Amino acid sequence: MAEPSTPADNAVTPAPNPEDQGSKARQLLGMKGANPGETSIWKIRLQLMKPITWIPLIWGVVCGAASSGQFRWSLEYVLISAACMLMSGPLLTGYTQTLNDFYDRDIDAINEPYRPIPSGAISIPQVTTQILVLLGAGIAVAYGLDQWAGHDFPMITVLAIGGSLVSYIYSAPPLKLKQNGWLGNYALGASYIALPWWAGHALFGDLNWTIVILTLLYSLAGLGIAVVNDFKSVEGDRQMGLKSLPVMFGVSTAAWICVLMIDLFQGGMAAYLMAIQQNLYAVLLILLIIPQITFQDMYFLRDPLGNDVKYQASAQPFLVLGMLVTGLALGHAGI
User: Fold this and answer.
1) Among 35, 147, 164, 229, fewest CB within 10 Å belongs to which?
2) Distance, CA of 328 to CA of 169 (rounded, Å)
3) Residue 121 Cα to chain centre, angstroms
4) Domain extents for the chain?
């Protein structure tokens, strides 16, 4: 049963103070609380691409390279890895975030009216051009990576196109997966964990069904991370009929769903590592889960609306380190 709404649920995010010294940095990163007074078109374009969201994708490529067991520390391999990170982060994640802001402009007009599109800081034709340029560049880099790897089947290009399609149906009508809290958040979690992992693995090794299934399961932990982003837009989602988990179940219940998804599926991955005799890596993963649980209790479960950003900043580093530990374990085991 959903909780009755509270004043905190119905609060619209206030426009940030333009004099806040940190607001310009938040704008460039695409974080909540950006400076509404920015006029530079390139800074506004960067804000739409939300650089803060590139980090998990870039890290996912690193985890995939580790799980392939075939990465070598050479200049060539480092540069080709950087190209894969460019594809996954700035280009295709930038495309995804810009596309999402384009289709969310009505919701943002309620929750964050100072954002670039609802505020009129950038025109719709300029946004459309940015979407197409980032998409085309991302697919072009993917094709180049396939050529470097000597793939008979253009696996990385297919992953780039498939991921871009998921991004589109996540944000755009008529499907608009984000309207469904479960499907939308899982699509987001898989895009942030599984897709870049597959790209990094395919770049240096042979992507196989074991890696595909394990990373899709790991993405259920990513579903929990994706839910955290829904707490900042409860009122706008409710008004627009979007069935996010906080809207469907209430803030408190959704917070518990979020943390349980994160912890249980990471714990399940630790159990799998033990089952394949990667005990040291399993213990390291468990040790990284413990501080996550601590921060969940300290911040998120006590005030998910007020502490969402603080919780992500404190707990998410342990999640991404756990992903790398898992990737190293799989590479060591020759999975």
Assistant:
1) 147
2) 33
3) 25
4) 41-333
